[in-house]
Amino acid sequence: MKSRRPGGRDRGELATFERAAKDLAAGVIHATSSRQTVFFLGDRLSGVIDFYFACNDFYAYDLAVCLNAWCFERTTASTPPSAADDRGYHKCGRYRRRR
Predict the structure, then answer these.
(1) Could you tell me if 90 and 69 are in contact, meaning their C-beta atoms sit under 8 angstroms apart?
(2) What is the pLDDT along the chain (99 residues), one digit of tens a residue?
(3) Which residue range(s) make up the domain with 28?
(4) Any domain includes 19
(5) What is the residue-wise DSSP string for the chain?
(6) In the list 22, 30, 35, 70, which could disulfide-bond 80, CB 3.0-4.6 Å?
(7) Global confidence as pTM
(8) Is residue 55 part of a domain?
């Protein structure tokens, strides 16, 4: 019988995640990008505020937080930055750790 961790996750799942996470690039991230913390003038980024939760973590996590916040807020002020963010992360090679 496999041992279980609190919350129903078994240790094999955690070990799989930890191995996969070693290949993800990390660095300083904002961690709370949303329509309340990112400002635009027209189609151009004009400011970013609220760095209270900034930390060292995976760049992919920062992108996921941003997409989650922008995809669920209803507004016509601007479109979600998903395509621009995704292109920027790929251009910088930020999804995978450089070897």
Answers:
(1) no
(2) 455 555 555 678 888 888 888 888 899 999 998 888 988 898 888 999 999 999 999 998 998 888 888 876 555 444 555 555 555 555 555 555 555
(3) 24-92
(4) no
(5) ---B-TTS-BHHHHHHHHHHHTTB-EEEE-S--STTTEEEETTEEEEE---TT-EEEEHHHHHHHHHHHHHHS--SSS--SHHHHHHHHHHHT-SB---
(6) 70
(7) 0.58
(8) yes
